[in-house]
Amino acid sequence: MEMVEYGRSNRWYNDYDSEIEFCKKHGFDFLQVWYKDGTLQGDKIAEPKEKTILEKGFPIIIHALFEIEDYDKYGEDLLRILKYLHHKEVIIHPVCHPLQSDSIFKLAECNKQLTELFYNNGITVYIENNSKLDPINYLPNELKIIFDCSPKTEFLLDIAHIDSYEHL
Question: In the 3-class helix/strand/coil scheme, how is the chain assigned residue by residue?
Fold first, then answer.
């Protein structure tokens, strides 16, 4: 039986050790660290960040903010980091600027290729929903397109995207 775990996002402007201590003190099971534009985000995580994260030993999950072109551009690097950290899961937060009529189909195909690559390396891909403020992978028919194209992709419902009625 799987247990519910509670995590929180790393505040990249804070000292990483302080973030870990806050998590331990308040009962968080893991820390979410963002990956964007080919790098782990965290102003105060000592370089090389992957090594620091591994040495600190506090569980993290990577939350990768990916534009459609980032799947090809950074997918292999993200896989390298995940393998280095011995991770079995990753969160993909899809974005698309500019949004075009075929963007959801391009996203679905890119996600399928990445999911297959990661799955073959023992890593589960979770794709999260967006809000209408970033309107891709938001509507039910768009989610269906993603999961019909890639049944190995898992879904992560990001409830932080419903923090106001403007997001619904």
Answer: CCCCCCEEECCCCCCHHHHHHHHHHCCCCEEEEEEECCEECCCCCCCCHHHHHHHHCCCEEEEEEECHHHHHHHHHHHHHHHHHCCCCEEEEEECCCCCCCCHHHHHHHHHHHHHHHHHCCCCEEEEECCCCCCCCCCCHHHHHHHHHHCCCCEEECCHHHHCCHHHC
The reply to whether the predicted model has a pTM over 0.70 is yes
pLDDT digits (tens, 9 = 90+) for 42-52: 989 999 999 99
pLDDT digit string (tens) for 83-118? Answer: 999 999 999 999 988 989 999 999 999 999 999 999
Per-residue b or e along 138-163, where b marks 16 or more CB atoms closer than 10 Å to that residue's CB: beeebeebbbebbeebeebeeeebee
